[in-house]
């Protein structure tokens, strides 16, 4: 069920949500979190779709905040809020409100979002594009336990990554990091089998890939060896090589979802390492809502810095 | 903040160095799933129904979720003239048909490389030699590191043969630094004596902690959630005792009949098939004290304590009921009665319905009856645990206002539609004061398209990880038989099963059994 509201306020939207729930005959609320998506019109559809798919695993209220640019100077001064309330089958397993903010109210989105948050439930903010420089200091970001950014959606990812190192606050996370989970999981599983000391490491990827950079930093932190960054034709991360005394541990994924794992003294075997769709990434993010300490450690590349100062 | 993170990671670095553990693993890194270590699974009776419908799909689903180690290997053992490829084809078809997650070529490719088939009989020494060389070959070519689980998906009469063969051919002995585990399915005997015998046979070859008894109910999310709800919250435990609880009803109802399982079912009956394992386990989880830790040893201790405290009613005739389904209509279909089923003698006394009353003799539960019932061809398929509370000791409302008010209840819905329901009284909207029962449901969302792990998936992964939390130990099995045996003996000697029309909620005698205590069954 859909309810369209033009030139509205948060309290009217709340009323519409209750009205919508009653109309479809399920007045009870069983949602576990509020998801706020801050995006532009262009990316709203895909992001909302991913969030709604993820809501099957994590029933949630999804608020999509779209800041609209008015075309004429006169409209620019006219501040108003339009909303589209969706409940029931139109909104995954939870409920969705698409908010379009025009004029001055666009700078005060938090005043619209705050009254619409589920009582006493965690809040997650996701910027599919145009994340603020310091997510935790953003008025919307400050409302959230978890702030999701995406380095794949920026012009100059490595430079932005450096900025994230400085601006990191507990609760920050990035989808470039989420994308690495299958890689990291398989690398850890590979080392479960090859129990030897790692003496060198290399990450192969297309140029300027933020996931590859994070993977390299993670390996650097955990293995305490310098990690070489090798540029390949891609796509994304294509391989990781870990040198040991007995030979190399290699996961190689030249293209497609099929990778090969090679351990010293053992024949190569195939591994499924697919690139996951956005909905799965978001679902993974929503599984844990406390600070991701490993991400923090990886961002900073802590141990290397530390050895640099101490040695 | 940054300093704090630093010191903590420093601490951990010491741990890493001391244990020589995998540097890529860290308890703080909770994104990394619990991936089983290098290992393989050998399935005996791989051509059976369970194997095709549950085990193979579960293995594939685990691989698809990235929870199996690279090089994971699956070995089938059965009396078929198959090559490895034929076996792979059978698994492929089973996975295509029954897997819960999407079929993906790359995942299949990863799995198929590690599939082997060993043809042979259980007393064929050559076949077990071949199995041994297959295991060794996999250690070398796939890096399974000598870690193997043997899944005995075979009727219990073959257990002795298979475990003896495993021992004889050195398959049960794990090489240094690796493990061997045995997985067995119910029935774990048909009475205390046979259960002991079976356990003795298995334990002669495998140590108790190497044996994993599958009770797929314990792999269900809701069943694990019973523990979370009871022991992670403050609001349930204070009222979880005789001062507030009136009684507990545990129901497992099936809408189907015995189907083609006449040979297995006749002579066993519903009490042995369901109450002995599933219902008594659910009861133990509902009634047990808080374990000191969430590990297999502590859980076993508490469950065993409750089972040992279970007392049977003195008058078994008045407080137990058994029944047989009679012809009738079930869900819009005309169905035959049990005695008319193919392969069942018209004089069979096997129970297809059983209801029993148990008490738990301890301070928490003294005087609180636990009613356990199970049956085939009942109203609908449902499993639930209902904790029914006493009525409020005093009501300021007059009796007409509360006429429709029943007792409060907390219900764990185990299947289908897993979740929890709380029943309480609420005012009916309007100007008059009228109070009636309402239900509040809670259902956690299922993992989307790739719905939440099936019980077998969870349990197979636990076997590979060596996590025995969800597996009953032999002491529990024996204790459960101790509870059930006197009832079966009583039934053996007195009367016969009551007939109940298919599609209803069991024989009238069962309603009378509760009416005698001034209670009635919930309609689940």
Describe the structure.
The complex is a heterodimer of chains A (about 300) and B (about 525). Chain A is of the alpha/beta class and about 300 residues long. Chain A folds into two domains: about 1-175, no CATH class; about 180-270. Chain A is about 35% helix and about 25% strand. An eight-stranded mixed sheet of chain A has the order 1-4-5-3-2-6-7-8, sandwiched between helices. In chain A, α5 links the parallel β7 (about 145-150) and β8. Residues about 305-310 of chain A have low confidence and may be disordered. Chain B is α/β, with parallel strands linked by helices. Chain B folds into two domains: about 40-185, Rossmann fold (3-Layer(aba) Sandwich); about 220-515, Dihydrodipicolinate Reductase, domain 2 (2-Layer Sandwich), CATH 3.30.360. Chain B contains 15 helices and 18 strands. In chain B, α10 (about 270-285) packs across α11 (about 295-310) and α11 runs parallel beside α14. Chain B is globular and about 80 Å long. The model of chain B is unreliable at about 1-20 and about 445-450 (pLDDT under 50). Classes of the chains: A alpha/beta (about 300), B alpha/beta (about 525).
Could you provide a short overview of the structure?
With 311 residues, chain A is α/β, with parallel strands linked by helices. Chain A is 34% helix and 27% strand. Chain B has 524 residues and is of the alpha/beta class.
């Amino acid at each position: 069920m859909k309810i369209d509201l033009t030139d509205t306020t948060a309290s009217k939207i709340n009323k519409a949500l209750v009205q919508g729930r009653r109309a479809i005959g399920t007045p009870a609320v069983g949602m576990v979190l509020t998801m706020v998506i801050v995006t532009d019109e262009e990316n709203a559809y895909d992001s909302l779709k991913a969030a709604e798919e993820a809501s099957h695993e994590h029933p949630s209220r999804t608020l999509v905040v779209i800041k609209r640019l008015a075309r004429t100077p006169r409209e620019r001064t006219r501040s108003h809020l339009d909303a589209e309330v969706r409940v029931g089958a139109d909104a995954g397993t939870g409920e969705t409100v698409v908010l379009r903010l025009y004029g001055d109210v666009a700078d005060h989105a938090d005043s619209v979002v705050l009254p619409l948050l589920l009582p006493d439930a965690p809040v997650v903010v996701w910027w599919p594009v145009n994340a603020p420089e310091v997510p935790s200091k953003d008025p919307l970001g400050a409302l959230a336990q978890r702030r999701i950014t995406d380095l794949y959606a920026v012009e100059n990812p490595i430079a932005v990554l450096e900025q994230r190192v400085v601006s990191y606050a507990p609760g920050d996370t990035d989808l470039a990091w989420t994308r690495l989970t299958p890689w990291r999981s398989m690398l850890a599983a590979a080392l479960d089998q090859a129990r030897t000391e790692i003496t060198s490491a290399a990450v192969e990827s297309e140029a300027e890939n933020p996931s590859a950079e994070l993977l390299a930093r993670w390996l650097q932190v955990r293995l305490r060896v310098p990690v070489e960054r090798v540029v390949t034709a891609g796509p994304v991360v294509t391989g990781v090589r870990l040198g040991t005394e007995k030979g190399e541990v290699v996961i190689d994924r030249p293209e497609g979802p099929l990778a090969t794992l090679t351990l010293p003294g053992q024949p190569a075997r195939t591994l499924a390492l697919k690139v996951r769709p956005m909905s799965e990434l978001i679902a993974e993010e929503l599984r844990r809502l406390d600070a991701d300490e490993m991400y923090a450690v990886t961002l900073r590349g802590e141990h290397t810095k530390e050895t640099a100062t101490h040695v | 903040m940054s300093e704090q993170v630093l010191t903590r990671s420093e601490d951990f670095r010491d741990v890493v160095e001391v244990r020589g553990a995998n540097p890529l693993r860290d308890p703080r890194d909770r994104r990394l799933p619990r991936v089983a270590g290098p290992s393989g699974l050998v399935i005996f009776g791989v051509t059976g129904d369970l194997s095709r419908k549950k085990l193979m799909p579960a293995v594939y689903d685990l691989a698809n979720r990235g929870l199996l180690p690279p090089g994971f290997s699956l070995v089938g053992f059965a009396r078929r003239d198959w090559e490895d490829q034929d076996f792979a084809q059978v698994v492929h078809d089973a996975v295509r048909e029954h897997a819960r997650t999407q079929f993906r070529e790359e995942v299949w490719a990863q799995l198929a490389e590690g599939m082997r088939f060993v043809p042979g009989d259980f007393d064929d020494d050559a076949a077990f030699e071949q199995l041994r060389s297959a295991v060794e070959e996999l250690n070398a070519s796939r890096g399974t590191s000598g870690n193997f689980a043997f899944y005995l998906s075979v009727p219990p009469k073959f257990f002795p043969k298979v475990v003896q063969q495993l021992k004889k051919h050195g398959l049960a002995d794990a090489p240094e630094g690796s493990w061997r585990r045995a997985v067995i399915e119910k029935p774990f005997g048909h009475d205390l004596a046979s259960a002991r015998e079976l356990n003795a046979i298995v334990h002669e070859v495998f140590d108790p902690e190497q044996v994993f008894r599958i009770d797929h109910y314990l792999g269900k999310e809701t069943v694990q959630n019973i523990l979370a709800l009871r022991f992670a919250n403050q609001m349930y435990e204070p009222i979880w005792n005789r001062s507030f609880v009136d009684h507990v009803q545990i129901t497992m109802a099936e809408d189907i009949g015995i189907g083609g399982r006449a040979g297995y079912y006749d002579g066993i009956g519903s009490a042995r098939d369901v109450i002995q394992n599933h219902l008594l386990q659910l009861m133990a989880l509902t009634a047990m004290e808080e374990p000191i830790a969430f590990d297999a040893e502590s859980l076993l201790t508490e469950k065993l304590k409750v089972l040992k405290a279970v007392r049977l009613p003195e008058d078994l005739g008045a407080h137990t009921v058994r029944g047989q389904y009679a012809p009738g209509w079930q869900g819009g279909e005309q169905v035959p009665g049990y005695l008319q089923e193919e392969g069942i003698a018209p004089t069979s006394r096997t129970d297809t319905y059983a209801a029993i009353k148990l008490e738990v003799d301890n301070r928490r539960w003294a005087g609180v009856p636990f009613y356990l019932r199970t049956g085939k061809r009942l109203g609908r398929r449902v499993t639930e645990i209902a904790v029914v509370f006493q009525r409020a000791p005093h009501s300021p409302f007059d009796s007409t206002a509360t006429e429709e008010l029943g007792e409060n209840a907390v219900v764990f819905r185990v299947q289908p539609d897993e979740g929890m329901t709380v029943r309480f009284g609420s005012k009916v909207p309007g100007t008059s004061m009228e109070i009636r029962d309402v239900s509040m449901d809670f259902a956690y969302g299922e993992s989307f398209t790739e719905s939440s792990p099936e019980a077998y998936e969870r349990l197979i992964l636990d076997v590979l990880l060596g996590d025995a939390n969800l597996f009953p130990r032999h002491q529990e099995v024996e204790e459960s038989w101790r509870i059930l045996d006197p009832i079966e003996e009583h039934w053996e000697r007195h009367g016969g099963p009551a007939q109940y029309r298919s599609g209803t909620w069991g024989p009238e005698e069962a309603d009378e059994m509760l009416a005698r205590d001034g209670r009635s069954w919930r309609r689940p």
